[in-house]
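To the team - zinc ion complex, inputs and output below.
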Amino acid sequence: MAAGKGRMSRLLKITRKNILTCALLILAICDLNALPGRKADEPELLFLFKNAYPDVEFNSKYDMEAGDWLIKVTSARLNGTHTKTTELYWSDSRFLPREELKNSENYRKMLYLYSFKIPEPSEFTEDDIIRIKQFTSTENRRNGAIEPPFLYDAIYDTGTRESTEQQIVKIDFLTKSINIHKKIEAPMKRISKKIMALSKQPELQPFFSTLSRTDGYAWRSVRDTKSKSFHSLGLAIDILPRGYYQKVIYWGWQKQLRPDDWYLTPVSKRWTPPEKLIEAFAEEGFIWGGTWIVWDNMHFEYRPELIAYKEYCENNPHR
Ligand SMILES: [Zn+2]
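Output:
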């Protein structure tokens, strides 16, 4: 009997505990639902931007009226003497101002899966080729969705040519000099130092002996498109060797020469920077243009959120 009674009281205890847990849970749900405009979790991927830009503040709150997350982006301005806050909406990683929310289809998502691997033309299927032709058609480049500039303009104060040029600094880089946005001065100097320390290695000697130019800031849009080039922000770097080793370096120039099959140009016929340079850039948050479908083998740009997104997708393959 005593054993039975003990079992019963244990059961009662468990049941009471369960009821209490359920009640608390219901209370919690009701409580949350009772609060208008409650702050639920932030957009799942906003943390990637917070980590990628640690000197920028991202404060989010849900805007019931707009039906989207409003994010206040606060960034230091000229020499850090004052800050500026810009209000942008998440819009599935597009960071749009309120008036552009209705036009979200005109903008690309800022997060896309960047690959470190060069697509191999000999493995392209017919469908791949149709997609490549569509993506690179003059019509799509002129009128397709563009890179949303608003978050970058908020972070880097690059909304106008005048405000941008106040942020441009000239630094020594790989035996040359280059104009870049001052916010990437520190990572650029670290890359240069690391690669210069390796300059005597046989693997890097041909690169240094043929290095002709390093180009950074230039106020312009991406060729044939309405997108503002990363060069316009001072966040892109072109590295050009003399004569390109008789290889091709940019898809657009090859398309002019071979309009029908430029995309089949073998990887071995494209000039490629040393692997160590690509790695050094990636470690500092820069992507290389050589793995894009519209390959641009001279080009690097500062996109720490894309490096972080790639790592996130690799660690969360089922999301
Ligand atoms: Zn470039």
